[in-house]
Amino acid sequence: MTTETQPQTKDFQAETKQVLRLVIHSLYSHKEIFLRELISNASDACEKLRFEALSRPELLGADDLSVRLVPDSAGGTLSIKDNGIGMSEAEVIDNLGTIARSGTRKFLESMSGDSAKDAQLIGQFGVGFYSAFIVADKVTVLTKRTDSEAVRWESDGEGQYQIQAGDKADRGTEVILHLREEDKEFLEPSRLRQLVRKYSDHLSIPIILKADETEETVNQAKAFWTRPKSELKDEDYQAFFKHLSHDSEDARSWAHNKVEGNIEYTSLLYLPKRAPFDLYEREQKGGIQLYVKRVFIMDRAAELLPPYLRFMRGLVDTADLPLNVSRELLQNNRTVEKIKGALVKRSLELLEDLAANKPQEFAEFWKTFGVVLKEGIIEDPAQKERIAKLLRFHSTSESGDAATVSLEQYVSRMQAEQKAVYFLTADTLAAARNSPHLEAFRAKGMEVLLLIDRIDEWVAGHLQEFEGKSLANVASSAADVASAIETPEKAAAESAFKETAERLAKVLSGKIASAQVSARLTDSPAVLVAGEFGVSLRMGRILKQAGQSNPFATLPILELNPKHPLVERLRDAADEGSFADLAHVLYDQAMLAEGGELDDPAIFVRRVNRLIVEGLAAQQSKIILT
To answer: Which of 46, 211, 405, 607 lies at a 20 to 30 A Cα distance from 483?
Structure first.
């Protein structure tokens, strides 16, 4: 342990320096957020002590947990004190000298220079302590754990900090801000009262303001979710959401419920507007806060909500779990399973209400979180039908990049003779809209859903049907797809192109399963179609990119448009070399139209060039003859 006469000077971690620089110089117009963050940290320290005291009651002692604000006008300092868990020397170095979080780099990348947007990032990325340097040119921290010596930490935020033994007898942490001259407004009791009531009124830990030798509790000091809904206003719910999520935007909607009976609990669930930075990182634990008898137990209790609802924020407070509950005890616990089932139901009800009564709001939700909700079709068979009604897809009947359609809307406008819900998967919306697979469906006025998210292949495979209508991929040779686009002309063309199809199958052996005349094409010369029981070409690419084998891999079928000039030229080509060139070009073009990659782009270019030269030569010969 260092001694008071021998302070150690240490450098901040490199990324910590960058964070400090951005915090100090980018958020000057939102200085007041520092108080919200420091009070939140102090409250968390008290909650952590309360939790540890469950197994070690002697830690708590006789003192009531609280957070104290002590402005000192004469000294120009503002102190935020708590009698919570405190920190050891190692914890001080780890927590205040290093930002050991995977989100740090994303925090730095997210800083935009717009202080209004950047202010909300402070707490969201776990760097709230550093907001102290927005108003202070020096910060001193005195902290002590019950079973450790006191530690003193001090820094001016310019790249280094000093750490040594501290002079502190009682447990807890005191953060002393040496305020800049232009920020002395935060020493005024009226200003501090106003900020506490704005940002921290909902905290269950009392926040006590000491001014003129008097002390007053300036927040409600009662767990927000235990207060009657009748006395809570929308702005109260929104303020609590911002504390809970460290988000600067309001929540989109929420549900506050108290359940009594065999199981008793209170839940408060929020649907945010903005996605967290780690939304698509499935290894990051989702979930909501868990309290037992108003004692904070854990921050992200993943067992209380399934991964496909990881965008939900909120908490559950129950008396039906032991105070010493652990993650291991939460798993396969019947009480937890019942609460989880109820929370899933509440979450889906929120979304259903939004979809029914605020379609524009739901459209915005879907744009932000729709891909995650789709995972529920795969993960939660019990809720598959409810989730299916919430799904939204682009469609050939909807124009604009933002326009989407529900499965219920699609089914309601299906043609009388239509057997299936038709869909097409593609990497982009533009690729889907221009796909040759749609030509016959567009000619017949049949609507096709356009699925462009990577997960859509799995979603369609697990959903399989909706309201008695099977889902069919138009890029497949499945019977229900073929029958929908069958034409009388196809039978006649099949006999005329029988020999051509056989020659194609030999030339493209190993690349295609067969070649045949198509009824699905009106403009394009050829298209690759998956076998009836094979996976789509796009699914095969996704599996390959993920380094996974494709157990259902089959060669595609090459379908030809008998009315296209290139296909007619192919049929009439007597020279085997020209036939092979044109056959490979048609195959490669069809592969490119599917979003695939060519085995050898250089050979493709040479073949196209030879065909162009041959065509020009033939055209020149006609001119000379005439």
So the answer is: 405
Calculated CA dihedral for residues 509, 514, 515, 516, nearest 10 degrees: 170
Q: Residue 436 and residue 260: Cα distance in Å, rounded?
A: 58
In angstroms, the CA 384 to CA 295 distance is 35
Are residues 187 and 63 part of one domain? Answer: yes
- Report whether 275 contacts 369 (CB < 8 A): yes
**What confidence score (pLDDT) does residue 239 get?**
86
Residue 3 in any domain: the answer is no
Spell out, as residue ranges, where the chain has pLDDT lower than 70. Answer: 1-5, 13-29, 97-127, 277-278, 280-286, 324, 479-480, 532-535, 545-553, 618, 621-626
- DSSP for 109-133? HH--S-HHHHTTHHHHTT-GGGGGG
Residue 207 and residue 261 in one domain: no
SS3 622: helix
The answer to whether position 400 is within a domain reads yes
- Residue 285 forms part of a structural domain: yes
pTM of the model: 0.71
Question: Rounded to an integer, what distance in angstroms lies between the CA atom of residue 445 and that of residue 157?
Answer: 66
What pLDDT, on the 0 to 100 scale, is given for residue 122?
45
Residue 14: give the domain boundaries: 8-220
With helix as H, strand as E and coil as C, how does 500-544 read? HHHHHHHHCECCECEEEECCCCCCCCEEEEECCCCCCHHHHHHHH
What's the DSSP call for residue 65? P
Secondary structure of 212-251 in the HEC alphabet? CCEEEECCCCCCHHHCCHHHCCHHHHHHHHHHHHCCCCCC
Q: What is the pLDDT of residue 350?
A: 97
Among residues 343, 358, 373, the one where a domain terminates is: 358
Backbone angles phi, psi at 537, to 5 degrees: -60, -35
DSSP per residue over 536-579, as a string? PHHHHHHHHHTT---TT--PPEEEE-TTSHHHHHHHH--SHHHH
Q: Pairing mode, if any, of strands 136-144 and 172-179? A: antiparallel
Please, what's the b/e burial string for 179-213 (b: 16 or more CB within 10 A of its CB; e: otherwise)?
A: bbeebeebbebeebbebbeebbbbbbbbbbbbbee
At 413 the pLDDT is 93
Q: What is the DSSP letter of 97?
A: S
pLDDT of residue 254: 96
Note the pLDDT of residue 101: 45
Distance, in Å, from the CA atom of 220 to the CA atom of 201, rounded to the nearest integer, reads: 6
Same domain, 466 and 557: yes
Which structure tokens are listed for 498?
Answer: 């029988």
In a domain, 600, yes or no: no
